[in-house]
Design brief:
Helix content is 33%, strand content 20%. Strands 2-3-6-4-7-8-9-10 form an eight-stranded mixed beta sheet, sandwiched between helices. By secondary structure, the chain is α/β, with parallel strands linked by helices. It has nine helices and ten strands. The protein has a single domain, classed as Rossmann fold (3-Layer(aba) Sandwich).
Length: 269
């Protein structure tokens, strides 16, 4: 693992479930071989979000768009190495930064708030952009950790037809309890969290879940709850902790088995 990937791994596993937005980008799509476009997305409540649309060649395109909803730390640049491999395999990827992250518009946050409902508004804006831009393509959502909450909250929008998720959160309250136990810190939840279980029960689209057998926060049991509620969901287990799936499921290239699982899942839809 090179120094860049080591840094990303350390960052994500150290700051998981602690709001820690980073304004500066550690990488940029201009440094990769794929074509990209930068867009400013406006949310329904007037915030401007920075986004990168990463495009495969016409020859390799699989006519599938993945909108990425990442976790609660860093910014979209931390995922560019994974995105590079996905684009090589034909996926169109839309990355965006939540308000207050990266070069998106500033947003005052309490670091002890587990998440903000406004992030779901941001995701909806990204999904609307993708749906309008790629009317003849399959639109899916790739969520990571906290991003799975945003995905669940926007599932009824009918703006995406499937979800790929790693570190799925089936109960935000359980995360708060674990953080209190492990870190002896109290985290806050938005009022809407009291209705999250109801939103989860409505998640009826196909969902592919990656679950780490050593993940103490978003456990395998969290993902199994989704498969219990949703017969269109399935789990891929890996030997690793929180958000280590891409690394753990590598092969001849970074994330090979991870990407093949996504590809096979989509082909079966």
């Amino acid at each position: 693992m090179n120094r860049y990937l080591s840094f990303i791994f350390l960052f994500l596993t150290t700051f998981c479930f602690a709001l820690n937005p980073v304004k500066e980008y550690v990488e940029h799509p201009a440094n990769f071989n794929f074509k990209y476009e930068q867009h400013k997305l406006e949310t329904e409540d007037g915030y401007l979000l920075n986004s990168w649309l990463c495009l495969p060649s016409k020859e390799t395109s699989n006519n599938t768009v993945l909108v990425v909803a990442y976790g609660d730390a860093g910014n979209m640049s931390y995922l560019l190495r994974q995105v590079d491999e996905l684009v090589k395999n034909g996926f169109t990827i839309l990355l965006f930064d939540y308000r207050g992250f990266g070069e998106s518009q500033d947003f005052l946050m309490d670091e002890k708030q587990l998440y903000y409902d406004e992030f779901a508004i941001d995701l909806k804006s990204a999904l609307e952009f993708a749906s309008n831009r790629f009317k003849s393509s399959r639109i899916g959502l790739w969520t990571l950790s906290m991003g799975s909450i945003m995905g669940t909250l926007t599932a009824e929008s009918n703006l995406f037809s499937f979800m790929v998720s790693e570190g799925f959160v089936s109960d935000p309250n359980s995360i708060v309890e674990k953080l209190k136990e492990y870190k002896d810190e109290v985290y806050l939840l938005p009022k809407s969290s009291s209705h999250y279980s109801e939103e989860l029960s409505k998640l009826s689209i196909p969902v592919l879940l990656f679950a780490g057998e050593r993940d103490g926060l978003t456990t395998v049991e969290e993902s199994q709850r989704v498969t219990f509620l949703n017969p269109k969901s399935e789990i891929v287990l890996f030997k690793g902790g929180h958000l280590q799936g891409f690394q753990a499921l590598s092969g001849t290239y970074h994330g090979e088995k991870y990407i093949k699982a996504i590809t096979n899942f989509i082909k079966a839809l």
